[in-house]
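Following up on my earlier thread - several people asked me to post the actual chain instead of describing it. Fair enough. Here it is, all 280 residues.
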Amino acid sequence: MFQSFGEGGLGFAIGHLTLEGRLTICVLIVTSLVSWAVMVGKARQLRKSRKMNRKFLDAFRETVDPLDLYRKQQAFEGSPLYGVYLESCEEMDSQIRREAGRQGGSGKPRPNGNGNGKTTLVPALAMNGVRVAAERGLGEEVLALEGGMIVLATAISGGPFIGLLGTVWGVMETFTGIAKAQAANLTAMAPGVAGALVATVTGLMVAIPALFGYNYLVTKIRGFTLEMDNFAAELNALLEITYLRTASAASVHDEAEAEHAMHEEHRAVYGMSATKHNVT
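Reply from S.P.:
Thanks for posting it. Predicted structure:
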């Protein structure tokens, strides 16, 4: 088999490679090794991310409060959904602390909100910050998933051109040698041209697997992005249901404050009347 390969056209061409062609092929081999390393590493990363996403969703579906996993400090490293969840919960916790402090609570994160048996509710403007945090987390996770894809894109677009450069360079050297030897015949030209074309073949062999791997990985990453986008919308909805202070809740809160102020006023008036009576 190897003997027939050596006697074939490719073996003959490789045997007549010029120095320029050898250098070009070495560059292409390094590019191919790097691109294959990226494809294998990225495939393993996506497989792990898919597995950790399933674990995170299973744990998240079992919770009652959307902040339970965050407060229990359960980590799911390698899960893109957990990255989005963590960013949203950190912002939500910050808003709850701020609102609890404004209402005179301790501001410490507790399972029931502000520590007085009631859940601390936040205004609608605070939820805008939570949505922004979710989008920020989603962007960071997408960047992490796409890391290294530039190597494959470079191999796809640059591999054939590097091979073409080696081919053109080799053909130029072949014609130069023929001109110097003054032997312009096909027998003298064929070995050099065949050796120069090996660089183009190598460039295509680098670009084609990288192209297939790139398309496969991009499709998978798009699926992760859609999944994170849907989860961010779901998480924001759950946080709004649990912690958003609606207009009715705000009015009840204001009425309670007004009633408390009225009781304090009546108590003060009663105290002044009692004082006057004692003086009399």
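The CA atoms of residues 156 and 212 lie 10 Å apart. That should answer part of your original question.
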